[in-house]
Design goal:
The chain is an alpha/beta fold and 339 residues long. The chain has one domain (3-338): TIM Barrel (Alpha-Beta Barrel), CATH 3.20.20.210. The protein is built from ten helices and eleven strands. The chain has helices at residues 30-51, 68-71, 111-119, 132-136, 147-167, 184-198, 217-224, 232-242, 285-296, 317-338, and strands at residues 3-4, 55-57, 74-87, 92-105, 124-130, 140-141, 172-176, 205-209, 247-251, 269-275, 304-308. Helix 5 crosses helix 6 (184-198) and helix 6 packs parallel to helix 8 (232-242). The longest helix is centred in the first third of the chain and has 22 residues, at 30-51. The protein binds zinc ion. Zinc ion is lined by residues 7, 178, 209, 211, 310-311.
Length: 339
């Protein structure tokens, strides 16, 4: 009950990449970079264990960004000539690579860090991949001319890597779909079919993470424009409930999402975001407990995990791990109270 985990990314050590930013440039180069990514992965696993988390991840230490880390290993993408594009319905501009030909994996994407993480922890291990709709919203298409066809092509590649991760001993494969909260009407139409294609044949636990984004200014401004209640989940949860995906990671802490909407996800395990990644204030264990109690009004306690709202990549490392330690302490309080 009340197992704890993270949405995905964690801050990187300053010897690996520039700190406190998204798309942070790497510091080492060549074979030094590969070795440093591996070392940072082992360290992230260890620090999550020490924080007391039950389900740990690689902290996305070996990828520069949660989408581009995957794209770098895909043939048919021109990574050298990035173009500026408005993403998430023009919420912000990003330099994105271009799809210029048929998509194919160059080989394994995350084998190094998945195998290393597996070798260095006995805890349950979760691994994150970008979802097909979110990928399709984070590249410039110069080849397919059809967003859905391109997303389905990405879903096929994601499925290859997801199956390989399962074979590496990963317990939970999570697909990150922040775009679901933006293109809500397209979720049922093709977002979920693409997601299920990406997850097809997996026998490990499957999850989807849907959030309001990293704690960067563009997202904070967007959230401020969404009114007193954020009801995007209301439009997409029914389709997710009907899908084969077993877990749904949502944001709840310091959020205007009415938790009553979680009742639309009957049968799913809910990864309730009890840690705000857009604030440097470290939640107390009691505040984590309060989120668990609020979720319990709607979701049976057996189906609640406690998680972060989103990835922590752009945060201070000290603050991020202090938050994770209190996440685990809050879960312990919840177990004491409700076991
Ligand atoms: Zn997120």
């Amino acid at each position: 009950m009340f197992e704890t985990t993270i949405a995905g990314s964690l801050p990187k050590p300053s010897w690996l990449a520039e700190t406190n930013k998204l798309w942070a440039p790497w510091k080492p180069t060549g074979t030094d970079l590969e070795a440093a990514k591996g070392d940072a992965t082992i360290l992230a696993v260890k620090l999550q264990e020490d924080a007391g988390l039950d389900i740990v991840g690689d902290g996305e230490q070996a990828r520069q960004h949660f989408v581009h880390g995957f794209l770098e290993r895909v043939d048919g993408i021109d990574f050298a000539n990035k173009v500026e594009m408005g993403i998430r319905n023009d919420r912000y501009k990003a330099m994105v690579p271009q799809v210029v030909g048929p998509l194919r994996l160059k080989g394994r994407v995350h084998a190094m860090e998945a195998k290393l993480a597996r070798a260095h922890t006995k805890r349950k291990l979760k691994f994150t991949l970008p979802g097909p709709m979110t990928i399709a919203d984070t590249v410039a298409d110069r080849h397919y001319g059809d967003r859905i066809a391109m997303a389905m092509a990405f879903a096929e590649l994601l499925n290859q890597e997801a199956r390989a991760l399962q074979a590496d001993g990963i317990d939970v494969v999570q697909f990150d779909e922040p775009a679901f909260n933006v293109f809500t009407t397209e979720v049922a139409e093709w977002g979920i079919p693409a997601l299920e294609k990406a997850a097809s044949g997996l026998t490990c636990t499957t999850a989807v993470h849907i959030c309001y984004g990293y704690g960067i200014k563009a997202n904070i401004d967007w959230k401020a424009s969404l009114g007193t209640e954020w009801r995007q989940y209301e439009e997409i949860f029914p389709a997710i409930a009907r899908s084969s995906i077993k877990q749904v990671s949502v944001e709840a802490r310091n959020s205007r999402v009415p938790l009553s909407l979680l009742s639309l996800l009957e049968g799913k395990t809910i990864l309730v975001g009890a840690i705000d990644v857009a604030s440097d204030t470290v939640e107390t264990p009691e505040e984590v407990l309060a989120v668990a109690e609020a979720a319990m009004k709607v979701v049976p306690k057996e189906r609640i995990q406690l998680c972060t709202n989103c990835g922590m990549a752009p945060m201070s490392r000290e603050i991020a791990y202090a938050k994770l330690a209190n996440l685990a302490k809050g879960a312990a309080l919840a177990r004491q109270k409700f076991a």
